């Protein structure tokens, strides 16, 4: 089965909505800035979405207030997505459309805030007694409420592979006949847990991140959200792209270090190729996980070298958006779809001195070359991996 | 409609630490309580670093695979919890409020929702697909549905684990449950495994239902614990009776689960 991809949209430091993202990619304009978060003294760069704190939620969703849900709502309103959702729900019924969100942070930023003003009893004060918001399901619950979709709703949280895996679950749900369509998405927001947490692991760079560059010394954390409406082919006759395959795997190696030879990554790539009945050489472009940490880029290059040749262009777009963690999967899936739409393969930003020690070369300048088949990789803590392969619908 | 076999079960709470004790407690017996949780599936050095939430999950996952006599490295996993490890969340948020630079890197990487399945995969050397999900109060129904569909669509046994730790101190003004509970149900495509304990038929629909009232289990109060929504299924299987359970899935959909425990008898007859 091919899963048709209808309306999609992305919001990140590289732009609010698709046109802004396209402009950033075309102009090679990074969205990263020096860390200017209040109460955060870490010397680093971040990918922050302007204006999130000013987003008002609809009044009936006020009880779900959090920065993460503000960002989710901001993203939902871009590119006519809400209208596309409403049209599809009208046709098939809102209970025939599922919701699958990916996140790593969920609304923990709101929980952090609650702990700065606990009651004298040491418990969470009334203003923050928001049952769904402190749950990992906060984004899925919020998006279902905000869109009026009443089908099965779930949130996947497998660290940085979360919102790549949403496509795999949606594929199964639709192929199985559980629902006719699924709104898949991912949302992660900047918060103290993530910044100080990655800082404690010495993974945060004090400079702009440099994926696959020999000078790379860590990640820049970003926030973002993205959505795609996916359905059976007959429901989306105008769809331009399809999900052809997905591969999920686990490293079984370490909680916070990737397998040195990219063992789990290769398994995920192989499973995605097998499902899409394609060979590695037929993949034109791969959007990498490419975080700019020493370990990720080294192991990902190993994995690439075991399967791909120079027929395939590969690049990381983390230096545009920062590493949006639980939202990275869907943001990069959408960047891959955009490369397939425009034929512009984004060259890795800030990779002025490609690391000769890495086992596979990355594209460093934007190249115009048609992308018939595109792949994206997402690898997370706990060794959790996902690879996705997209194709043109009229192929 | 989705049909799957239940081929293995695992349970852990403060009042019963495995399936046998669970059945014993249901029959009115009592079990030894207060024992230290020491899951044998993970190596001692990993066990020391693992929080209680991970130990609870790994213990019941191991129990379910043993009951099914299935090699753990051959099953996919779906872990579900409404809130993840609230105690780590509380630690993180308190530390961030007081001295953010003091965050422990180990506790940070243990704070990911897929920590339990990460430890499990390392212990079992499994590269099988692994997910960690939440549906807030509907975590149990959504995990069973998602896991069962994966089992059928991918033709692989799927180990569905649901759990909720006890409410952490600061969260007591928000959540009402007081005791931890963890359970695993190993779901297999129909007829794939020989150790069939029960058959499940799942039907999702746009009907709205109220969650069932929990039956009292002597000596333990799991009311309000989102993971305890699995109990009606577990109790029916333990008591060897067929049952129909309806659980909400979302704001406008629900899951009807028919449990058939007659499969063992049928299998032995044939």
Structure explained in plain terms:
The complex is a heterodimer of chains A (395) and B (270). Chain A is built from eleven helices and 16 strands. Chain A has 395 residues and is of the alpha/beta class. In chain A, a hairpin with a 3-residue loop joins strand 15 and strand 16 (384-392). In chain A, helix 2 runs parallel beside helix 5. Chain B starts with a strand and ends with a helix. Chain B has helices at 19-26, 44-49, 52-68, 86-98, 105-110, 115-124, 139-154, 231-238, 263-269; strands at residues 2-13, 76-80, 130-134, 158-164, 181-189, 198-205, 243-250, 253-260. Chain B is α+β, with helices and mostly antiparallel strands. Chain B has one domain (2-269): Peroxisomal Thiolase, Chain A, domain 1 (3-Layer(aba) Sandwich). Strand 6 (153-156) of chain A pairs antiparallel with strand 3 of chain B.
The residue fraction in helices of chain B comes out at 25-40%
- Number of E-type strands of chain B: 8
The number of helical runs of chain B is: 9
Please describe the biggest sheet of chain A, giving its number of strands, its sense, and whether it closes into a barrel: 11 strands, mixed
In oligomeric terms, what are we looking at? Answer: heterodimer
Mind describing the biggest β-sheet of chain B? 8 strands, mixed
State the CATH architecture of chain A. 3-Layer(aba) Sandwich
Q: How many discrete structural domains of chain A?
A: 1
Helix-strand makeup class of chain A: alpha/beta
CATH superfamily of chain A: Thiolase/Chalcone synthase
CATH hierarchy: architecture of chain B: 3-Layer(aba) Sandwich
What is the typical, i.e. mean, pLDDT of chain B?
93
Count interface residues per chain for the largest interface. A-B, 78 and 68 residues
Strand order of the largest sheet of chain B: 3-2-4-5-1-6-8-7
CATH class of chain A: Alpha Beta
């Amino acid at each position: 089965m091919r899963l048709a991809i209808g309306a999609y949209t992305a919001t990140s430091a590289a732009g609010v909505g698709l046109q802004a993202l396209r402009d950033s990619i075309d102009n090679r304009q990074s969205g990263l800035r020096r860390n200017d978060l209040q109460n955060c003294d870490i010397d680093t760069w971040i990918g922050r979405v302007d204006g999130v704190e000013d987003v008002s939620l609809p009044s009936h969703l006020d009880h779900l207030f959090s920065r993460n849900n503000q960002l989710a709502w901001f993203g939902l309103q871009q590119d006519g997505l809400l209208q596309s959702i409403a049209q599809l729900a009208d046709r098939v019924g809102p209970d025939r459309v599922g919701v699958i969100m990916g996140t790593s942070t969920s609304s923990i930023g709101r929980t952090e805030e609650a702990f700065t003003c606990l009651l004298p009893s040491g418990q969470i004060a009334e203003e923050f007694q928001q049952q769904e918001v402190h749950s990992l399901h906060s984004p899925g619950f919020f998006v279902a409420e905000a869109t009026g979709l009443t089908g099965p709703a779930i949130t996947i949280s497998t660290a940085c592979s979360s919102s790549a895996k949403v496509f795999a679950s949606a594929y199964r749900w639709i192929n199985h006949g559980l629902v006719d369509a699924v709104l898949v998405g991912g949302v992660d927001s900047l918060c103290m847990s993530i910044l100080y947490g990655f800082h404690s692991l010495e993974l945060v760079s004090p400079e702009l991140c440099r994926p696959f560059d020999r000078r790379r010394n860590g990640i820049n954390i970003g926030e973002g959200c993205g959505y795609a409406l996916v359905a059976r082919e007959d429901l989306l006759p105008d769809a331009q792209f399809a999900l052809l395959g997905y591969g999920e795997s686990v490293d079984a190696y370490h909680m916070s270090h990737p397998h040195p030879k990219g063992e789990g990554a290769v398994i995920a790539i192989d499973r995605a190729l097998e499902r899409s009945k394609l060979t590695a050489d037929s993949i034109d472009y791969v959007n990498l996980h490419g975080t700019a940490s020493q370990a990720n880029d080294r192991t990902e290059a190993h994995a690439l070298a075991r399967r791909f040749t120079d027929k395939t262009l590969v690049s990381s777009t983390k230096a545009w958006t920062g590493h949006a963690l639980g939202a990275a999967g869907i943001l990069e899936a959408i960047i891959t779809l955009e490369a397939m739409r425009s034929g512009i393969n984004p060259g890795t930003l800030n990779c002025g001195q490609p690391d000769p020690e890495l086992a596979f070369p990355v594209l460093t300048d934007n190249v115009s070359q048609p992308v018939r088949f595109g792949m994206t990789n997402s690898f997370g803590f706990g060794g959790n991996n996902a690879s996705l392969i997209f194709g043109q619908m009229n192929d | 409609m989705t049909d799957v076999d239940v081929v293995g079960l695992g349970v852990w709470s403060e009042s019963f630490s495995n399936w046998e004790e669970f059945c014993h407690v249901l029959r009115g017996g009592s079990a030894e309580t207060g024992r230290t949780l020491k899951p044998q599936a993970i190596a001692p050095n990993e066990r020391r670093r693992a929080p209680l939430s991970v130990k609870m999950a790994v213990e019941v996952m191991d129990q379910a695979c043993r009951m099914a006599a299935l090699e753990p490295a051959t099953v996919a996993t779906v872990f579900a919890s409404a809130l993840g490890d609230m105690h780590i969340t509380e630690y993180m948020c308190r530390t961030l409020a007081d001295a953010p630079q003091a965050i422990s890197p180990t506790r940070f990487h243990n704070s990911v929702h897929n920590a339990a399945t990460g430890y499990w995969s390392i212990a079992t050397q499994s590269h099988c697909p692994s997910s960690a999900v939440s549906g807030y109060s509907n975590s149990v129904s959504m995990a069973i549905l998602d896991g069962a569909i994966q089992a059928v669509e991918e033709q692989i046994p799927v180990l569905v684990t649901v759990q909720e730790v006890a409410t952490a101190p600061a969260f007591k003004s928000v959540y009402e449950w007081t005791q931890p509970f963890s359970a695993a149900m190993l779901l297999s495509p129909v007829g794939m495994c020989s150790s069939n304990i029960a058959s499940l038929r799942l039907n999702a629909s746009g009907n709205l239902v109220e969650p069932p009232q929990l039956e009292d289990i002597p000596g333990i109060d799991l009311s309000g614990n989102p993971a305890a929504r699995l109990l009606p299924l577990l109790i029916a299987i333990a008591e060897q009776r067929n049952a129909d359970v309806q659980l909400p899935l979302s704001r406008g959909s629900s899951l009807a689960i028919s449990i058939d425990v007659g499969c063992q008898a049928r299998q032995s007859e044939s």
